[in-house]
Design goal:
The complex is a heterodimer.
Chain A: H1 2-34, H2 83-100, E1 122-123, H3 125-139, H4 143-152, E2 154-155, E3 166-168, H5 169-176
Helix pairs in contact in A: 3-4
Chain B: H1 3-34, H2 40-49, H3 59-82, H4 98-109, H5 119-122, H6 125-155, H7 165-191, E1 200-203, E2 206-209, H8 213-222, H9 243-267, H10 271-297, H11 311-324, H12 339-350, H13 361-381, E3 386-387, E4 390-391, H14 394-420, H15 432-447, H16 462-492, H17 508-539
Antiparallel strand pairs in B: 1-2, 3-4
The chains are: A mainly alpha, B mainly alpha.
Membrane topology (chain B): Multi-pass membrane protein
Subunit structure (chain B): The system is composed of three essential subunits: KdpA, KdpB and KdpC.
Protein name (chain B): Potassium-transporting ATPase potassium-binding subunit
Chain lengths: 177, 540
């Protein structure tokens, strides 16, 4: 045990030394570099358009359902064979169909399923298109004008192949004002 | 371009990037663990710690160093969480409760990074940086040190010395993990990953938590740790905002485990020995990726638990890579996967984390499996098996068997007991087979030091905190001790010359034998349990 004790003391000293390097200097250096101008969108290095928060009201584009209870982010963690959750999804479908005044079979899947983070800023182009007439009506804008804004806030795949395209609801709603 | 085509191109880009990087990076790591000199910073660390970097250690001393270092790490991390209320940047989140602190301390020291807490309301920035980030580095470096010690067992002859644990630990941290993590933390910031010391930002009237994410994100993936800085882990837009950050994170997860096969080949003086391991790892990785991808694309609710910006292809790629490497970070919620898709993720863990496995742990796990495979081949032809010029006698095979059997034992005892406890039913988030899968996944994740979860399961009870903590510790340290014991007895041997009867370990025959052993061991151990969970769900 004496040997183990000596090793533990050496281990503690090594750990403290590495803590200074990796736990203090390293994050401080990354933080410092992150403040360099040009590296990030703004001075705070936080791009809030990457976060989707649902805004109620006909004048807004709606995000996907969220299972997150802020401040905790997260998903529903419901499996696909869960009768209770099937009912929740069916309710959402009915509600979206009513809100957008369309048949239930026109409601896209992402409109009724919760994202992984509960903060997904994107919706599918199909779900955005579904919402265009309602938002245009509520704001007294032409549908073509709204549709152009949607197109302007549609993110394609990064470099043409990475990830999936989607409409950034947060940025779109801000553009609508 | 269709979603599938774009996804396939993305996989191609990833593989090309790994192919380009693994040679120089693998050779660099070989030099790190063999060079004679010490840098100034390293000398300072050795002086502070009062360790002699020139002294070689026997396997027992090396193993005691690993255990002592990890033990001290658990104690320090536990204390740090318990005194959080007096630390800066805690935002009144207060002292972390004892059960959570115990589980988290073991979790991060064992490179599991299982999380039984919600970071946004439990962990302040000081514990994240000074506690969790540090263990993200050093637990990875410990895994690489043990792998290198095992390789030395094959390379060295007639010696009882395996190298110096403190030197391997410090070099792995300072020369490999730290510079690469810093570089990619900055790259991640440039892609939009958050680096903030504030508690949160207001978005459309709601408070959303922020954190110093980028610095921890880089090492969390690079060190195959996987603990989310925020609750949704790499699904959170602040951790993984777009297609670029996602590809970079998957690359970081895979780069060290893949490159270490090159390091291995370089160190044993025959690079084909490394490439045959990589071939087996890559084949199994590809097969399971196909299973998860196809299963998720044909699910009943493919978007549930997935982010729009990732969709099925990028989610399946991430899920396969994170479970094949003992990382456990997630960019989608595995609990919402199909029976087959979630089963694929589970299978990666049940292989024993070697496709390609965690940093260091993947290499030593597949080398142990190679010992088992050669032993089986030896039985078939009635000849004492050899591997890389070393005889595999009773002692070597026993050590390998102990290392292989530790994980299934603690996993099945843990999951079996949990399934019998009446209280468990209330902890599950889904009914039927999927509920059993939640239990099985939790213990598979803990025992293999993965850290991902079918996260619907509520694991805050004392039973889960304690039993999963014990599984993480035993699943980590029994194999490490057995591997170092194996390394010690290999190093003590003289080199046996190759003869006409030696089975070559660079060709397709050996690759088939090795891949077959991995699949067979997992199948023999886990098919009954899998049949009741994911397989039953997939067949419904």
């Amino acid at each position: 045990m004496d040997n183990f004790g000596r090793q533990a003391v050496a281990g503690l000293r090594v750990l403290l030394a590495l803590t200074v390097l990796t736990g203090i200097l390293y994050p401080a250096a990354v933080w410092g570099v992150s403040r360099l101008p040009g590296l990030h969108a703004n001075a705070e290095a936080v791009d809030t358009t990457s976060i989707g928060i649902d805004r109620e009201g006909d004048q807004w584009f709606r995000t996907r359902p969220s299972a997150a209870t802020l401040p905790a982010s997260g998903g529903s963690n419901k499996g696909e064979r869960n009768a209770e959750y099937d009912a929740v999804v069916a309710e959402r479908r009915t509600a979206v169909a009513q809100r957008e005044a369309v048949a239930e079979d026109r409601v896209p899947e992402d409109a009724v399923t919760a994202s992984a983070s509960g903060l997904d800023p994107h919706i599918s182009t199909a779900y955005a298109e579904l919402q265009v007439p309602r938002v245009a009506r509520a704001r007294g804008l032409g549908e073509d004008r709204v549709r152009a804004l949607v197109a302007g806030h549609t993110d394609g795949r990064a470099a043409g192949v990475l990830g999936e395209p989607g409409v950034n609801v947060t940025a779109l709603n801000r553009a609508l004002g | 371009m269709s979603s599938t085509a774009a996804g396939l191109v993305q996989v191609g880009v990833l593989l090309v990037a790994l192919a380009v990087v693994h040679r120089p990076f693998g050779d660099y790591m070989a030099r790190v663990y063999t060079s004679a000199g010490h840098s100034r910073v390293e000398r300072a660390v050795y002086r502070v710690a009062r360790v002699d970097p020139e002294s070689g250690q026997r396997w027992g001393t090396y193993a005691r160093g690993v255990i002592a270092f990890s033990f001290v790490g658990v104690v320090l991390l536990y204390v740090l969480q318990r005194i959080q209320s007096v630390l800066p940047f805690d935002f009144d989140r207060g002292a972390v409760p004892p059960g959570v602190a115990f589980n988290t301390a073991i979790s991060f020291v064992t490179n599991t990074n299982w999380q039984s807490y919600v970071p946004e309301s439990v962990m302040g920035h000081t514990v994240q940086m000074v506690g969790l980030t540090v263990q993200n580095f050093v637990s990875g470096a410990v895994g690489m040190a043990v792998a290198v010690a095992l390789v030395r067992g094959f390379v060295r002859h007639r010696t009882d010395r395996l190298g110096n644990f403190w030197v391997d630990l410090v070099r792995g941290t300072i020369r490999i993990l730290l510079p690469v993590a810093f570089l990619f933390a900055v790259v991640l910031v440039a892609t939009g990953v958050v680096m903030s010391l504030k508690s949160g930002v207001t978005v459309d009237g709601r408070q959303v938590a922020t954190a110093p994410v980028a610095s921890q994100e880089a090492i969390k993936e690079l060190g195959t740790n996987g603990g989310g800085v925020l609750n949704a882990n790499s699904a959170h837009p602040f951790e993984n905002p777009n297609g670029w950050s996602n590809l970079i994170e998957v690359f970081l997860i895979l780069v060290i485990p893949v490159s270490l096969t090159r390091t291995f080949g370089t160190l044993v003086g025959d690079r084909r020995q490394g490439y045959v391991l990589l071939g087996v790892m890559g084949t199994l990785w590809s097969l399971v990726l196909a299973v998860i991808w196809v299963a998720e694309a044909h699910g009943l609710r493919p978007s549930e638990g997935k982010e729009t910006r990732f969709g099925v292809p990028s989610s399946a790629l991430f899920a396969n890579s994170t479970t094949g490497t003992s990382t456990g970070a997630v960019n989608s919620m595995h609990d919402s996967y199909t029976g087959l898709g979630g089963g694929g993720a589970m299978l990666n863990m049940l292989f024993g984390e070697m496709t390609p496995g965690g940093v260091g742990t993947g290499l030593y796990s597949i080398l142990v499996m190679a010992v088992i495979a050669m032993f089986l081949a030896g039985l078939m032809v009635g000849r004492t098996p050899e591997y890389l010029g070393k005889k595999l006698g009773r002692r070597e095979v026993t050590a390998a068997a102990v290392s292989i059997l530790a994980m299934p034992t603690v996993l099945l005892v843990g999951a079996g007991t949990a399934a019998l406890l009446p209280s468990t039913k209330g902890a599950l988030n889904n009914p039927g087979e999927h509920g059993l899968s939640e239990i099985l996944y939790a213990y598979a994740s803990a025992s293999n030091n993965n850290g991902s979860a079918f996260a619907g399961i509520t694991v805050t009870s004392d039973w889960f905190q304690a039993s999963l903590g014990v599984c993480m510790a035993l699943g980590r340290f029994i194999p490490i001790i057995a591997v170092l014991c194996l390394a010690g007895s290999l190093a003590a041997q003289k080199k046996v010359p190759e003869t006409a009867g030696t089975l070559p370990t660079t060709g397709p025959l050996f690759a088939t034998l090795l891949g077959g052993s991995i699949v067979l061991v997992a199948a023999l151990t886990f098919v009954p349990a899998l049949a009741l969970g994911p397989i039953a769900e997939a067949l419904l």
